[in-house]
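Item description
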Amino acid sequence: MKVAVLGGGAFGTALAVSLAANGPVTLWARNAGAWRDRTCPKLEGVTLPGRVTLTGDVAEALTADTLLFALPMQSLAGLLDGLPEGLEGKALVACCKGIDLTRLTGPAAILAERAPAAMPAILTGPSFAADIARGLPTALTLACADEAMGKALQQALSTPALRLYRSRDVIGAELGGALKNVVAIACGACIGAGLGDSARAALMTRGFAEMTRLAVHLGAEPETLAGLSGLGDLTLTCTSDLSRNYRFGLALGRGEAFDAGTTVEGAATAQAAEALGRRDGIPLPICGTVSRLTEGTLTVPEAMDQLLARPLKEE
């Protein structure tokens, strides 16, 4: 199975480096010409192994049988619209974490829209690019509605250090990976504002309940949210400075500027989740609060006051 990774950011590069343990990999990057000595500009200290072919020609990547889309969620539809024909018959694996602001769907639906005959899959879970690139042990969820395709992808994309657990719950896997970024922003803001670890634990727990509520409403299995793609990823991103969403929240809580060039998936996802909640009548107080925080229409103290002032209820 010939594999290509589309997206030369930190995570796409890390996947290409890891998958090279299994055989040749093509890595497509928009800025391939800016790389020096096969070193990723966004992944310090990581040089591509010889089995990875770096290219700026997307047509070269599209010759692969299996395509991994490792780019920001809000960029996925635009990239797919610009691709030539020829996705049918290929295994399409989304490695994006988010909800599209225009369509209010996850990446699997966008892949299916572009290639109706293809069977999309989701690769997600608790992982930092630097850990994967260094060969540190990492476990992820590989979700595909087609069991045979899921098994084939699990075998093809697992490596000695990258262990994939298979699931058929695509909606649960993609929503767990998307919504945990929203909660990570909230937790970062909480710690940045000096509200303490107890408040963060409360946000993580109530955030997990919110994630599950929306995901199950949209067709997910609750057990999926309790796995790697939900609780596992939530735990990682809400507690580590390596998480961009958590660091963004820290900056909000401290009243500091944040690097405008850094992709923060949780900001757009919060807006999309809030829109889904309004559309379907699902209460999502944390998502709504983070949406307004990131838009600048709510301060961190106001956000905490609003959440704490909510009616007392049974857990």
User: Anything to note?
Assistant: The chain is about 50% helix and 10% strand. The first strand starts at residue 3 and ends at 6. The radius of gyration is 19 Å.
